[in-house]
Amino acid sequence: MDTLNTGTPPKTWLVESILVTLFCCLPAGIVGIINASKVESLYHQGDIEGANRASAEAGKWTRIGLIAGIVVGVLYAIYMFVIVGSSGLFNS
Amino acid sequence: MASSTHNRLLIIVVWALVLLSLLAVYKFISPELAPAYFPKCPFRQYTGLQCPGCGSQRALHHLLNFRLGAAFALNPLLVLSIPYLLLGFWLDATRPLKGKWLVVRRTLYGRVAILVCLVVVLLFWAGRNIPIVASWLNS
To answer: Where are chain B's structural domains?
Structure first.
């Protein structure tokens, strides 16, 4: 069945999506994994154009999830550093 | 052309720096000893249940200090997925793929494999919130 294309399929962003699932935002990661399967399906149906578009879309959302996770995490750490740091200062 | 190569290089350098500093933070600061500085899982805070990623920050700290067992107890899925993720990264970076690597990619990272990943994540999510299954997962 999967004989239409014998080249290398476009990047599915599966690995990055799993990382997003495990490290920051579960919903973004799950959507990423579903998008990854869409890339593969389209490619093996012979729709290389559609697969490339799905790949770009998957990449965009996975990157947004990843960057949002890192930004929120870093902001949180800075915020807590200021709060905990200053309360520690007042307590001592 | 030259400037786009330049930009690409800059993006890689910035990402490498961000990644290295994050790894340094997770290696040298223990989320268990200083939990205040690390973001908490919103799902766990609101529901009291664990998501598939819960324990990853603590597990990463143990992994970076070569304590595989401690990391496994906190998030077995994370530890087990490392070889799979590394091979996946390597296959992504190698283009075009040829011969047997194309078969490896299709078998381990194709449509069926992706759906298996999805099911494994969902089963792990459910399982770690069922006490009997959870104790088996951490054994």
So the answer is: 31-137
